[in-house]
Fold:
Amino acid sequence: MEFIDLTRKFLKIVRERDAQLTETLKSGSIQDHEQYQRIVGELSGLSFAENTVIDLLENKEDLDE
Structure:
């Protein structure tokens, strides 16, 4: 599997998980504050990972150095 294919698959998985968690928040099915904090923390981590990958791809020439 090529690097770009792997990267696209990773971003797809991250975005799908983000959508799942966002739907959980929207649906009001949170059981307690601890679960809410866990979901918000995971969303924050997913956002960081997605943005980092996108930034690296946009600045690919920096990786080649």
About this structure: The mean pLDDT is 91. The two ends are 23 Å apart (CA to CA). DSSP finds three helices and no strands in the chain.
